[in-house]
C-alpha cells in the first residue's frame, strides 16, 4: 500500500511538459495508469470488496453450519439404522434358533408319534394273532370233541346191547328222579 501512495507522491515531482498531449512512451505511462486505476479501485472498491468478501464468508460459514447439521442428522440416522440392524439381526438369530428348536421338537414329536403308531400296530397284530390262535384252538377242540363224541357213541353203540342199553337208561332215569327229589 505504501508503494501505491509513493507512486502518487512521485507524480508531483515530474516536470510538466507544458501542454496537454499524449505521452507515447509506454514504459512511462503504464505504471502511472496502473497506479491510478489501482488507487481508484482500492479507494472506491474497498467497501464493495469487503462487503463481497463478508457475504462470501457468511455463505461459506452457513454452508459449513448446514453441512455440520446435515452430518449430525446423517450420523443420527446412521446410528438409528445400525440400532435397527442390530435389533433385526438379533430377532433373525432368535427366529433361526427358535426355528431350529421347533424343527427338532417337531422331529422328536414325529418320531414319538411313529413309535406309538408302530407299538399300536404291533399290539393289534399280536391281538389278532392271539385271537386267531384262540379261534383255531377252539375249532380244533370242537372237532376233537365231536370226533371223540362220535367215537364214544360209536363204541357205546357197538358195545351195548339192548338189555345193557335199557339198564343204563333206567339207571339214568333213577338218578334224575333222585336229583328231582333233592331239589324239591
Structure description:
The chain is mostly helical. The chain has a domain of 112 residues. It is 90% helix and 0% strand. Helix 1 runs antiparallel to helix 2. The longest helix has 134 residues. It is rod-shaped, with a radius of gyration of 67 Å. It is a single-pass membrane protein. Belongs to the ATPase B chain family. GO terms for molecular function: proton transmembrane transporter activity.
Q: Layout of helices and strands, plus pairs?
A:
Blueprint: H1 2-11, H2 26-159, H3 162-183
Helix pairs in contact: 1-2
At a glance:
This protein has helices at residues 2-11, 26-159, 162-183. It is mainly alpha-helical.
Radius of gyration: 67 Å
- The averaged pLDDT comes out at 82
Low-pLDDT residue intervals, each spanning 5 or more residues: none
Largest sheet: none
What's the N-to-C terminus distance?
Answer: 164 Å
Please state the overall shape, judged from the principal axes of the Cα atoms: rod-shaped
The total of beta strands comes to 0
Structural class designation: mainly alpha
Helix content: over 70%
Strand content: under 5%
Order of helices and strands: HHH
Structure annotation, total helices: 3
